[in-house]
Amino acid sequence: MKLEIKGLSKKYGDFQALKALNVEFTEGIYGILGPNGAGKSTFMNLLTDNLKRTAGEICLDGKEILSLGKEYRAKLGYMPQQQGFYEQFSAMEFLRYIGKLKGLKGRKLNGQIEELLTKVNLYEIRHSPMSSLSGGMRQRVLLAQALLGKPEIVIMDEPTAGLDPKERINIRNIVAEISKDKIVFIATHVVSDIECIASKVLLLKKGELIRMESPAGLIASVRGKAGEIPCTKEELQKLQEKYVTGNTIQRQEGLFFRIVGDDLPPEANVIWNNLTLEDVYMYYLEQS
Ligand SMILES: Nc1ncnc2c1ncn2[C@@H]1O[C@H](COP(=O)(O)OP(=O)(O)OP(=O)(O)O)[C@@H](O)[C@H]1O
Ligand SMILES: [Mg+2]
Predict the structure, then answer these.
(1) What's residue 147's pLDDT?
(2) Arithmetic mean of pLDDT, 74-92
(3) Percent of the chain with pLDDT over 90
(4) Range with the largest mean pLDDT of 43-52, 131-140, 233-242
(5) Residue identifier of the C-alpha nearest atom 17 of ligand 1
(6) Which residue is closest in CA terms to ligand 1's atom 30?
């Protein structure tokens, strides 16, 4: 499977939300990382053809998705960012409803629903109304709905938004498990959602694709560009004012202010090992 994006652009009025994106995807998990407003949802909505593009092409195995139409949509699973929910439905009813919209029915539909509810660990509560489910459970129902119909391309827009760390890990594990032989996209501004599972990470900033690389490759690219300043709580505020972007890290040894840049100030100790995707995020996406 090959999904090719050529010169893909989106303008809302005069505002360019996505700038001539050129990129190719084969099977794998792709983390789309970018701050608020970077264009992640715009890109996903163009991929699902929920949004009309301004220019460019999206081809699946050489064929434009607009001409593939239904055939393309049948291969898609989409987990939207905003939750439009049917509160009175149970998880099972909700999945049945979505499954029918996708053209599934009978035993095939019931079989898939059962399998997916088990996979997302909700089989026990399948008859509870959606209104009674926790945020994490709801996200897992949404994930299950995206997987109905065994899609080959799965598109998830901030699947872990608002979840606690345990539920984040839960979702991440399920995504890793279902991703075999699929093209999976995960948009997020939370590094930990994708750092252990993404084959490649796309860094998106102000509608531009800055880089697409493996997590390890990205981390290697910021070697020598991160530094730490040991500090007290009192000094921290001054550092935050002085350096616009920085992470505060609390370790057993004390408090550190972590900064990134091409020219680190002498007060910072350059970090050569244990660089993380957080440093990558800060270096490429948070510096102005
Ligand atoms: N319908 C619209 N009309 C006008 N501008 C829009 C519209 N939708 C999005 N935008 C703008 O386009 C830019 C990209 O928005 P988009 O929703 O794609 O970002 P995002 O990366 O998904 O952000 P978030 O992390 O907040 O979800 C933003 O500046 C946003 O304000
Ligand atoms: Mg978004």
Answers:
(1) 95
(2) 86
(3) 82
(4) 43-52
(5) 41
(6) 37
Give domain limits for the chain. 1-75+167-221, 84-151, 224-271
Tokens found for residue 143: 């994930």
The model's pLDDT over 180-219, given as tens digits with 9 standing for 90+, comes to 999 999 999 889 889 889 999 999 999 999 999 999 999 9
Q: 179 near 185, Cβ under 8 Å?
A: no
Tell me the C-alpha distance between 33 and 11, whole Å. 20
pLDDT at 87: 82
Q: What are phi and psi for residue 118, nearest 5 degrees?
A: -70, -45
User: What angle do the packed helices 135-147 and 106-119 form, to 10 degrees?
Assistant: 140
Measure CA 151 to chain center. 17
Pocket test for ligand 1, best of 8, 15, 32 (most atoms within 8 A of CB): 15
CA of 40 to the centre of ligand 2 (A): 5
Region 122-139: mean pLDDT is 91
Question: Distance between CA 286 and CA 105 in Å, rounded?
Answer: 47
Neighbours of 279 (CB within 10 A): 23
Rounded to whole angstroms, the Cα distance separating 78 from 144 reads 10
Which has the minimum average pLDDT: 45-59, 125-139, 218-232?
Answer: 125-139
- The Cα 187–Cα 204 span in angstroms is 10
Nearest in space to 42 (alpha carbons), one of 10, 4, 64? 10
Nearest to 47 by CA among 12, 15, 23: 23
Return the SS3 of 261. coil
- For 157-195, b where at least 16 C-beta lie within 10 A, e where not — what string? bbbbbebeeebbebbbebbeebbeebbbbbbbbbbebbb
Which pLDDT value is given to residue 84? 67
CATH architecture of 1-75+167-221: 3-Layer(aba) Sandwich (3.40)
